[in-house]
Amino acid sequence: MPDLAQSTFILPQDATLTIAQAALKQKIHAFIMANYQADKTHLLIVSGDAGSGKSVVLDAAFAQLQQAARAGVGPLAGTDNKLLVNHNEMLKIYKEIAGAKSYFRKKDFMKPTPFINAYRKAGKRADVVFIDEGHLLLTAPDPYNNFRDANQLADILQLARLVVLVFDFHQLVKLKSFWTPALLKRITSGYPVAHFQLTEQMRVGDAAVNDWIDQFVRGRITPLPHPEKFDFRVFADGQPMYRLIQQRDAEVGLSRLIATADYPFTVLDKKTWYVTAGSLRLPWDKINFTDRPWAQRPETLHEVGSIYTIQGFDLNYAGVILGPSLGYDAEKDRLTVNLSQYQDKEAFKKRPDLADTQAAKIAIVMNAINILLKRAKYGLYLYAADPALRQRLLQAHDLGRE
After folding, report:
1. What is the number of helices (H) and of strands (E) in the chain?
2. Of 161, 177, 198, which marks where a domain is finished?
3. Same domain, yes or no, for 134 and 51?
4. Is the CB of residue 170 less than 8 Å from the CB of residue 49?
5. By CB atoms within 10 Å of each CB, which of 55, 63, 313, 319 scores lowest?
């Protein structure tokens, strides 16, 4: 098995949870022990920003649960528990873990729709259901993926005694899985709900850089911090950025180019689609039919990744291409979003029930940028396709050195 701890939420064997993560793991265990015999469904919602370590804790807590479930004796022995994730790449990792741990089975890990259909058909409830990347749960019918109901979370709550839901409103990337606080409250209003929030940043290796990213996705461009232990740069052209990514990959591995969905692509045909960044032209990633994460496959050094291949995973160094949907208003000194340039048409699939789809679409674009910018542990490199934004970022880069 490849070293999944390098690029995923899986902890290395000699690593330990932080104090906050250990507290959450204990909270999950206490939540299960207090409520596993209850007839009424109980819900625990875990929130936190990208890179806060939510999946790390979920994996550790689910391992603890399944060890107890597969023990010969004990209150949780024989319980029927599942971990659901609506993300193909992350599901591959969970299933690969299952093959290496005696207390896991591959059937413990599922996508939401197959779980809903199987348990509804069997007329039964699971004991405990963990949901990773809960913000990817569908909030509208999706016949292509065999989901014909209105809301996946509503269905899961009917099919489980206990639900542990990991959720981040800043990682919503499609209208068909678009959540608002009001919708989440409405879906969960009939159930006892507990909350826990993780606030540490476990991925981006510098607090000032993380703060800069938070300001950026709110539309503000501030001088770039230049910390000693995190390499943060802006490039005038994509080619030198790519050369540096190649160098970093040779030095420490797990260094890749990733981009916003502003360059044409289709998912299921065999055509090669390209991303351009100044003089640089590289192919988009393609559907990963292997069992290895996209960033761990050597050939993907010569591709450009997307939110669909990188969400939920870590890089050591990330070169982010900000495509033409992101612009700059010099008078207001603010970012602008041109929705007509965004090429992920599936993300904007019509939702007549949403009151303000324009605002939702802008939020989706900025959420995708937040996800991309928070992939890297040791270095982040930026190139902007829009000339005005590129110039403003280069200026911010230089101002940060003064």
Report:
1. 11, 15
2. 198
3. yes
4. yes
5. 63
